[in-house]
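Here is the promised in-class demo. Please do not try to memorize the tokens; focus on the logic of going from shape to residues.
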């Protein structure tokens, strides 16, 4: 049996997963989460900066994905100011930064696919 499936299930934050791959994909899976994390890996960004860097994402999707990434502990949302206009900055948490090597590997793989086509 492979080590990622050493028990019948794994639990994180009250959610039960059949294996660690399922857990990881819940945290970073989908079309946009890894893209958002990629754009935050080198520097913190404001919401509109992310919108400009990922122009094909809808505002609602970006907002929902940022909330989910924040809830899962990958992204930190800092709010500056008490009344509008407030400044909101997004950055990777220490936990989110642990995903950076994976992002770089995915980027290299994608670049390799493009160069071979």
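The designed amino acids, position by position:
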């Amino acid at each position: 049996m492979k080590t990622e499936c050493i028990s019948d299930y794994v639990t994180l934050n009250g959610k039960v997963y059949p294996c660690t791959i399922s857990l990881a994909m819940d945290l970073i899976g989908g079309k946009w989460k890894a893209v958002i994390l990629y754009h935050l890996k080198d520097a913190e960004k404001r919401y509109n900066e992310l919108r400009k860097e990922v122009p094909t994402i809808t505002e609602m999707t970006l907002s929902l994905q940022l909330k989910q990434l924040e809830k899962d502990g990958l992204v930190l949302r800092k709010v500056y100011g008490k009344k509008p206009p407030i400044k909101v900055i997004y950055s990777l948490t220490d936990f989110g930064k642990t995903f950076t090597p994976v992002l770089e590997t995915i980027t290299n793989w994608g670049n390799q696919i493009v160069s071979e086509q």
